[in-house]
Amino acid sequence: MFLSMCLDIAGAGPGGETISAFKQRAAAIEAAEPDVVILAAEGDDGAILPPKLEALVDSSWITGTLRTPCVVAGLPAGHAVPFHVARALSAVDFLSAGRVGWMPIATNGAEFDGAYGETRDDADLVARTDDFILATQALWDSWDEDALIIDKQSGEYLDSTKVRRVDYRGKFYSTMGPLNAARPPQGYPVLVRDVDTVSGAETKADIAIGTVASLAGDDAGIKLIRVDASDAAALADAKAAVAAGTANGLHLTGPAALDALTALRAEAAKPAASAKTARQSLGLDKPANAYVEGALS
Length: 297
Description:
Elements: E1 2-7, H1 19-31, E2 36-39, E3 41-42, E4 48-49, H2 55-65, E5 70-76, H3 82-95, E6 100-105, H4 109-116, H5 125-140, E7 148-151, E8 156-158, E9 168-169, E10 174-175, E11 190-194, E12 207-210, H6 212-215, E13 222-228, H7 232-243, E14 249-253, H8 257-267, H9 278-282
Parallel strand pairs: 1-2, 1-14, 2-5, 5-6, 6-11, 11-12, 12-13, 13-14
Antiparallel strand pairs: 3-4, 7-8, 9-10
Helix pairs in contact: 2-3, 3-5
């Protein structure tokens, strides 16, 4: 059974949680051995919200504390920029030895409209998020996996024939590429989506989070049932659904999430740690580069 929960700083500014306390809480979560930790905030109803700490910055150092198989950066879907996200996540995937994921979050749009000084139409948010994902993935495909040479004796750094423009043109985003960072070790970092907030999305997620009903028709590689860890009856029902094969695990929410994670891990031990990427640990296929001849055949 895969187990997941969110992590974000508890309040910012004067009187908020200190970075030291935040790191201690992260260490407590790590000790409970989750499979996935999402750097994101959480609403009262368990909805996943963009984090208070900028996840693209946060993930570069929190992956040093969290040895969790997959550490997921939550991003405001309506205002993230493909080139910036692709470059940052490529770097973090290398720094973490391939343990990073990403989650475009399609909630709290109005709050980010104010922060960024531009308004997004909520009616277009799902389509815009799909386009954002495809543009970002296209940039990762602008490098072949073996483009980097880094041979000190010959002085060769890369094979320029294996770096290309991708000229991605979507409805909302266009990007020529190439990216000024190498293809991530995982090909693409693990993509997580909340199917309760992106109904009708066309891009397939590696991990989908939602209710039993919303997950039923989803084709994600891993399905996690969102459940309030303090609701014993709901938790028992969710565990039964996983046992029946309806889903692959649980995304635990609420103040009792860590305690529930600790108890559930005691029931279902995680496989022994080894030098694996997130995709390998979670049993997810490594995506092929769509721009390499024969890659998709």
